[in-house]
Amino acid sequence: MLSKCKMPIAHEVMVGLDDEAAKVIERLIWGPEQVEIVPIVGMAGLGKTTLAKKVYNDSSVICNFHTRLWCTVSQEFNMKSLLIQILCPDAKHSRVDDEFQNLDEHVLLEMLHKKLMKNRYLVVFDDVWDIGAWHELGIAFPNDKNGSRIIFTSRSSNVASQVQYGGEPHYLRPLSEKESFELLQKKVFGKEDCPQALHGLGMEIAKKCRGLPLALVVVAGVLATIEHDICVWEEFAESLTSTMVSGTDQCKKSLELSYEHLPYHLKACLLYFAAFREDEKIGAKNLMRLWIAEGFVEKVEGKRSEDTAEEYLMDLIGRNLVMASESRSIGGVKTCYIHDLIFEFCKTEAKAKNFLQVLRGYDELSTFNVPPYLHRLSICSSGEDFIKSKLFCPHLGTLLFFDATPGDEFELRNISFLFCIYKHLEVLNLEDINLRLKELPTEVESLLCLRYLALKGRTMEFIPPSIAKLSHLETFILNSCMTVSLPDSIWNMKNLRHVYVRGDVAIGLSSNDNNVVENLSNLDTLSTLCIYFDQGGENILRRIPNVRRLKIFCLALNALNRACRNMSQLECLESLTLGSFNFSGSREHVELSFPMNLKKLCLSYLGLPCRKMSLIEQLPNLEVLKLRVQSMEGQKWELMEGGFPKLRVLTLSELDFVEWTETDPHSDDYFPCLQQLKLLKNSNLEMVPACLGRISTLETIKVRFCRDGVDSLVRKIEEAQKNYGNENLKVIIIG
């Protein structure tokens, strides 16, 4: 059985690490029986994390360990959040996270101990700065003398020498001159070779980076954007001569050079990363919405600002200043992060240019002298310290708060005073403070300049009609556990583009005084819309004609029917999540009608007859389909020939069907683009289509907690794929 794991997808180009990885893997697999810590030590930017990822994802390592876990420690670590990160890596912003947050540290330590007990485990602690983290966590790691291993990555060899079970540090070497040029060449030219005319200059530039991978990729990011001309490269090589030195300073000089080569609009986007916590995996959508609200993104006629912002992000990734850690199922970046050296550079540069001030902890908060014309402030402290500091910045344009102690949630019963003090805010993010309120205070109307508002109020149910006075508001995010009622005045907020309520949202529908039905033609995202009545869904859908991402939950069969019937009018819709309450009654007469542009579809509790699946199979642009619990009803799903022409990802979870077949077992006209197949908790499944063994594009099959017969069926698919020449298919079976 393969090991359980959750590891961010990394897109680094790896050069010169094969021999290093082989040495570490040998220690992991063939070392002593007792648990051992394997420290990977080296200066910042040398590739410690990249090496750890390479080892962690090696097939021999995967087969050797029952359980693999990964967590990032960083300079400012919180014990409770570290434990939650290890125990439940998918927990962020989920209800599971809420449950874990309410548990005591000792309970979490015991849970981790039980999870690892009797298992041969591999746990990676990335970026360990201080041994204090291990002294508190170490008791949770059993020594069953079964060959379990722990990897530390650290800049300090002292960290390794101070721990029990600490082995000899593995000191990571710099890249050779040949390896340095190879990395530079791959980052600048991709799969192509460096032109012969530039080869000598490329070698010279690579040599000046002194084997430091981070310096090489940052320099490559500049070279990739300038003309591939001898004179231009000579000038660039000369500019490195007087600045490049050894060690960390070398990286800083490279970063300064790369920053100076950025277009003006990208400089602001990069410096904005300093507002977040170090090593944080940042949601790309949210980041881009913040950039838009801040005015960093140029408005282009006939083009959505989100598309322009995505181009900015991809440009920064292309320049090797930002890393994509996780990809979206329908393409694009889901989460991203920056190297800690780049983070420090951004923080220093942002402060020096009065672009952004970052305050951490009560000492900095309480002693902070507000400079004139301070526009942006990011605070990372406990919520209690933030309120206690009585910070007064009346002309502030951006206020971002991040809880430094996420294990101890701070609750606030009054937020009105903040709305009254910071009247010039354009961006307000208080998602890490729980507002213990049933209704958002009407004083929110004071924030007339607001473009971005993100709040958490687990018990919040009502948003006042006065919110419509925020005529510039583009993004509204509310983390609630309730059904939140939005006032009908929201239809007057013409600039509103993103409404995301974790929980459900109900929207009033009355027209204005002149009986004119208002709509939100700019709305791009609406989640999660709760439809109670049969007429509600139909009318709401008419009012959001250009929505691209929509999540709906229906509480009545008539509401479900109306929603499905009128969905096709949303011609811009790309991503749809549709669910219903598990009510009684047949779905036989539910009329499915989805827009042709749909790329992603997630269904749950719909109970649609298997024979109606052909309507989904015919969608010409569908790339991702997730059929979750009870979304499909019936014993047999027979695939139609020629269906799913663009489907890349298919997830079937907690379905009751028994037979999954194709109309013609000998035809190859099924799933021509399928890359990933996931089968989760399908306890009755006995048959899968034979065509799965002949799909040349298939990359991954994941099976979790299905009956044993499914495991053997998948192994037959794997064997058939090998017979057809697909040696790279990954099959992961758990449970």
Automatic annotation (TrEMBL):
Keywords annotated in UniProt? ATP-binding, Cytoplasm, Hypersensitive response, Leucine-rich repeat, Nucleotide-binding, Plant defense, Repeat
* Subcellular localization, as worded in the UniProt entry: Cytoplasm
Q: What is its main location?
A: cytoplasm
Q: Where is the Disease resistance protein winged helix domain?
A: 276-345
Q: Report one GO cellular component.
A: cytoplasm
Q: Name one GO biological process term.
A: plant-type hypersensitive response
GO MF terms listed in the record are:
ADP binding; ATP binding
Keyword set includes Nucleotide-binding: yes
NB-ARC domain: from which residue to which, for each copy?
19-193
Q: Which residues form the Disease resistance R13L4/SHOC-2-like LRR domain?
A: 422-703
Task: Report the leader peptide range.
Answer: none
User: Which Gene3D superfamilies does this UniProt record tie to the protein?
Assistant: Helical domain of apoptotic protease-activating factors, P-loop containing nucleotide triphosphate hydrolases, Ribonuclease Inhibitor, Winged helix-like DNA-binding domain superfamily/Winged helix DNA-binding domain
Function comment: Confers resistance to late blight (Phytophthora infestans) races carrying the avirulence gene Avr1. Resistance proteins guard the plant against pathogens that contain an appropriate avirulence protein via an indirect interaction with this avirulence protein. That triggers a defense system including the hypersensitive response, which restricts the pathogen growth.
Question: Which family does this protein fall into?
Answer: Belongs to the disease resistance NB-LRR family.
Query: What is the protein name for this chain?
Result: DH200=94 genomic scaffold, scaffold_510
This protein's species is Coffea canephora
